Amino acid sequence: MAVATPTTVRDTASIAESLRRKRDVKGVAFQAMMFLSLVITLGVLVVLLFTVISDGWPVLSQRLGGFLTSTLRPDAVDAGVVQGLKGTFYLCAIVAIVAFPLGIAAAIYMEEYAPQNWLTSFIQLNIRNLAGVPSVVYGILGLTIFVKGWGISSITGGSSPLAGGLTLSALVLPVVIITAQEAIRATPQALREAGFGVGATKWEVIKDHILPYAAPGILTGTLLSIARAAGEAAPLLLIGTISGIITRSAPWYDVTQVQDRFTAMPTLITSWAVQPDTGFSVENAAAAIVILIFFVILLNSAAIMLRNRFESKRSG
Amino acid sequence: MNDETNHDAQKQVDEMDAVQANRPTVATVATENSIEPDHPVVLSMRNLSVYYGTFRAVRDVDMDIRENEITAMIGPSGCGKSTVLRSINRMNDLIPTARVEGDLRFHGLDLYDSKVDPVEVRRRIGMVFQKPNPFPKSIYDNITYGPRIAGTPKENFDEIVETSLKRAALWDEVKDRLSESALGMSGGQQQRLCIARAIATNPDVLLMDEPCSALDPIATGMIEDLMQEIKSNYTIVIVTHNMQQAARVSDRTAFFTAQIDSENDRRTGLLVEFDRTEKIFSNPADERTENYVTGRFG
N or C: which end of chain A has fewer CB within 10 A? Predict the structure, then answer.
């Protein structure tokens, strides 16, 4: 007995030593680095928002209503963004009408119908490459085809929201196709088999099971690409949006203005920002940026809300 | 035996006959069984092979599947039983490289004739899958989906839902929540719903691909009872990994095994033996079958 006791004590000590919590220096350092990255990212965003809001504050606080409803004017204190908002609204509408059906249809074809051969892989590779092409290049494409293209220019009316919307559609199409493809691919095989198993045709399986299942993913991707289209300036500058005065100011609902000369929020901000008058380059430009950011946040929130609604429906 | 006892016994039998007008007595069943002709053949396979590209997954399958019987396919993994099952309702068509060689006839008609529409085949030959896979819709919509795409008038839907759920022994559990999502049910209920969905299109044949592998013993027992209940209306083919299940539920059993192909060193499945279930489990003709059913390999 006397021998047993010390043995037990020594063993307990060594076990306690092996179990003792050791300081995980690398782990803590890593966690700190991650946190720092988050702080930097969010910090930049906060500084940015603070700067634009404070720069635009005179406009936002004193004449927001007038700023939202008045047109491009020579004097900074009178000028407003209504034409830019109209332009951006029509651009987004055209992207929604053109890019979504085309992109989703292309994605369905690529995922469900295309034969598995070198041509399909080649097309797939190029869709991915197109998603990485700089937006300026799309501007050149828009200028050549949609603004000056023989026959097409008479439909678009030259540098118009229609030409711009088609250009932006081409810009976002690869991303719409890729996100829709990924959503379609994520549909469980068991769900397809269930559909085929009760005698559904391929189209019925796609329409009744695959698309409803993939809808949240498709929707998120497409709405986010609208938000991207709303913020693009470079392609619009190339196709020739107006930075001066627009003579005709049609009401919101007048669809014929898609063939008129136009401006949009990003190009309007760009042109104001380079003016010598700080009323334009600081106050008005910042206020317009705040409005554009608000617009984009609104779109993104809609995307998230719609996705959540669809997903809760999907999981019953 | 004296005459009186005999007479009494005869009287008793007569009384029973009077009560159970149409029911045959025990004695007549026994005689019928011994001389009973085989049920008509619904599906016949001759020299059936299934390929994935150039790879032959299963070869030389000769089987007759008979009406109102339960036919079980057993064998080790990778022996091609599911492949054969899926070729029956042309589910393998969904795999672009899959190809069937040999003869597969349904009521004497070649299922792989170019004039045959696989969609119609799947309506006549329903399928229940390994994992319960209800549509993410209501219980009601799960069952009516098949009839709806087949063009059945909406007026019949309520009746179809009730009949199918009753046959699948699920009606009493779900009749008050038909509009609720099928995904809220337990696994066993979901699998019975899948059976109800499969019989809602009124198929002749029901293919079941390891229908109980994702279920607990109680749910498995319910599915097995259900199979016995519905076999008078359908012809059932079941793939199972569970030999006891095959022995419990099936009338005939096909034993498959895998063999290394000398040509390309890959495993190809083949049918070893196909016979009445009692015979396969008590007195198999092939040594490989005996080794498998006695647990010596596999």
Answer: N
All residues of chain A having their beta carbon less than 8 Å from the beta carbon of residue B133 are: 188, 190-191, 193-194
- Residue B148's pLDDT is 94
User: In 10 A of CB A52, how many CB atoms?
Assistant: 20
Query: Does B31 have pLDDT greater than 50?
Result: no
Mean pLDDT for B123-131 is: 93
For B122, name the nearest residue in chain A, comparing CA atoms only: A199
Q: ipTM, 2 decimals?
A: 0.82
Q: Is the pLDDT of residue B34 over 80?
A: no
- Residue A56 maps to a domain: no
| A contacts of B91 (beta carbons < 8 Å) | 193, 196-197
Given B122, B150, B183, which is nearest A197 (Cβ)?
B122
pLDDT tens digits for range B35-55? 457 889 999 999 999 999 888
Distance from CA of B272 to the nearest CA of A (A): 28
| pLDDT in the model for residue B24 | 43
Q: Residue A189 falls within a domain, yes or no?
A: yes
pLDDT of residue B8 exceeding 70, the answer is no
Q: What angle do CA B157, B162, B167 make, to 5 degrees?
A: 125
Q: Which residues of chain A have a CB within 8 Å of the CB of B98?
A: none
- Of the partner residues B120, B181, B197, the one whose CB lies closest to the CB of residue A198: B197
Whether A231 maps to a domain, the answer reads: yes
Contact B94 A193 (CB under 8 A): yes
CB of A196 within 8 Å of a chain B CB? The answer is yes
Strand blocks (E) in chain B: 41-52, 55-66, 70-74, 98-106, 109-110, 125-128, 205-209, 235-239, 252-260, 267-276
User: What residue type is assigned to position A52 of the chain?
Assistant: V
pTM of the entire predicted model: 0.80
Task: Using DSSP bridges, classify how beta strands B41-52 and B252-260 pair: parallel, antiparallel or unpaired.
Answer: unpaired
The answer to whether residue A72 sits within a structural domain is no
User: Which of left, alpha, beta for A100 (phi over 0: left; psi -120 to 50: alpha)?
Assistant: alpha
CATH, residue A226 = 1.10.3720.10
Instruction: Calculate the average pLDDT of chain B.
Output: 85
Q: Which residues of A touch B136 (CB under 8 A)?
A: 191, 212-213, 313-316
For the segment B117-144, the average pLDDT, to the nearest whole number, is 93
Domain extent for A209: 86-264
Total number of domains in chain A: 1
- Chain Cα centroid distance, residue A14: 58
| Among the ranges given (A145-149, B62-66, B232-236), the one the predictor scored with the smallest mean pLDDT | A145-149
The alpha-carbon gap from A178 to the nearest alpha carbon of chain B, in Å, equals 23
Provide the pLDDT for residue B26: 41
d(CA B210, CA B208): 6
From first CA to last CA, the distance across chain A in angstroms is 66
CB interface of A with B, residues 103-142, below 8 Å? 115-116
Option in A116, A193, A199 nearest B146 (CB): A199
- A209 to chain B: closest CA residue: B135
Query: Which segments in chain A show pLDDT lower than 70?
Result: 1-10, 243-249, 313-316
Amino acid letter, residue A102: L
Predicted confidence (pLDDT) per residue in A82-132, tens digit: 888 888 999 999 999 999 999 999 999 999 999 889 999 999 999 999 999
- Residue A272, helix vs strand vs coil: helix
